[in-house]
Design a protein that fits this description.
The protein is of the alpha/beta class. The chain has a single domain, classed as Rossmann fold (3-Layer(aba) Sandwich). Helix content is 33%, strand content 18%. The protein has eight helices and seven strands. It has a seven-stranded mixed β-sheet with strand order 3-2-1-4-5-7-6, sandwiched between helices. α1 crosses α4 and α3 runs parallel beside α4. The relative contact order is 0.16.
């Protein structure tokens, strides 16, 4: 899950967002279990990528040339690990700030020996600006970001024009941006924002069918049984 903090400002002259303009989270640190703390301490040095204000070569990080996909706000990481296991020929980088989720994903990587998954524990906006080169990603996943349902909080939502422009700039031509939400009003806003980004084109006539690679979470399955909707949006870089 991902959050925003403060409203977006005007992009800088070089086309990047100011680091003060938008954040991909609001820090709500939950209680960590002993196992999460242990795996965070022991496994993160092996599977983590430290934040730095410099471009990184993901082919060098993973030791191979393969499609590269970034997930923003992976929560506890269960779906992230499941996708990486199912797609071993693709390399994944999960970005999350919350330590319990990072520790849990470290545990999943260790338990299932997932070689094609790395973690960056830092604000996604700063990571995208500083570390990820333009035209370098094959895909970006943003699954179930915080909907901030109250109208006065809508400015905190992650999917805003400036941020979508940043995401699109990091995709290769033909690369995809996949968002999903279970909040209908947010889905409507997402569709509007994504549709007005000139670098992107919708792959569907409105909302997309759920791609096979995105697993149904337990929460989502329960919601569907209760008649709640889930909306997927899949756009491609022109």
């Amino acid at each position: 899950m991902t959050d925003t903090h403060d409203s977006p400002d005007t992009p800088e002259a070089d086309g990047r967002l100011s680091h003060r303009a938008i954040r991909s989270f609001v820090l709500r640190q939950g209680r960590m279990s002993d196992a999460q703390m242990r795996y965070l301490a022991e496994k993160m040095p092996q599977v983590g990528i430290a934040y730095r204000n410099a471009r990184i070569d993901l082919a060098e990080v993973f030791g191979r040339v393969a499609p590269k996909v970034v997930e923003i706000g992976f929560g506890m990481g269960d779906a992230t690990a499941q996708i990486a296991r199912a797609l071993p020929d693709t390399d994944f980088v999960g970005i999350e700030v919350h330590s319990p989720g990072v520790g849990n994903l470290c545990k999943l990587i260790d338990a299932d020996a997932i070689p094609n998954l790395r973690i960056i524990q830092h604000d996604a906006v700063e990571v995208l600006q500083a570390m990820i080169a333009p035209d370098s990603l094959d895909g970006v996943h943003v699954f179930f970001p915080d909907p901030w349902p109250k109208k006065r909080h809508h400015k905190r939502r992650l999917i805003q024009p400036d941020f979508v422009g940043l995401l699109a700039s990091r995709l290769k031509p033909g690369g995809y941006l996949h968002c999903a939400t279970d909040w209908e009003e947010y889905a409507i806003q997402m569709l509007e924002v994504l549709s007005t980004e000139p670098q992107l084109v919708n792959t569907a006539d409105g909302y997309a069918p759920r791609p096979d690679y995105r697993p149904l979470t337990k929460f989502e399955q329960r919601g569907l049984r209760l008649g709640h909707g889930v909306w997927d949006l899949v756009f491609r870089r022109r």
